[in-house]
């Protein structure tokens, strides 16, 4: 059987709100009706992970305020988001997405950061996601993607194309650096060649009109 980890305890930190709810939903949906066959069980189980910080006192208040039952799971989630500020949190992440730029990071690292912000921003439509991602890329990488036909259409295609082209660029750049390194290795000093020649060899060079520096005939 596949083992699904339960969520971490939640202390009311707004930066963790969306992740906590997502982990709860994932755990509940995986086990389904075998364990969570009522909304009351879903809510009670989720409340058990609220400890410390501002979440602990809110849990106590919520339980005491619902002596006859917890109503629906959807209502609970909406109330939870309202109290622990996912709306403000989403706005914060949307702003971070607008200002996000790749800079000197690799495409893969940039994609991880972009994915994280997108997941926390509440932006779900493909057009908005791809537009923001294109804007966040370096000019050179974005231009490289635009030069390929057909253009990516989904956000996943944009991720894959950006990663692939960035890997190709890094590989080509490493090869170029290696070639440059090899060509810059010190060559044999031409003056040493003449010094190392014996008398007979030097006489032969002179007779043939051969250059002591490059071994070619016609100049000395």
Automatic annotation (TrEMBL):
Q: Where is the Retrotransposon gag domain?
A: 53-137
> In terms of domain of life, where is this protein from?
Eukaryota
Enumerate the Pfam families for this protein: Retrotrans_gag
InterPro entries to which the protein is assigned, alphabetical: Retrotrans_gag_dom (IPR005162), RTL1-rel (IPR032567)
The protein's name: Retrotransposon gag domain-containing protein
